[in-house]
Amino acid sequence: MELEELKTLWDEAGNLKEKQPFLKTKTIEKMTEIRYKSKLKKVIFHESLGTLFAFGAVVYMIINFNKLTTLFFQGIGIITSLMLIVLPIISLVLLYQINSIGDVNQPYVETLKQFAKQRLRFIRFQQVSVVFAYILLVFVILLMPKFTGGRSLNENKYFWAIAIPIGYIFLSFFSRWVIKYYSKTLQQAEELLKELEG
Question: In angstroms, rounded to a whole number, what is the distance separating the alpha carbons of residues 182 and 198?
Answer without folding.
Answer: 24
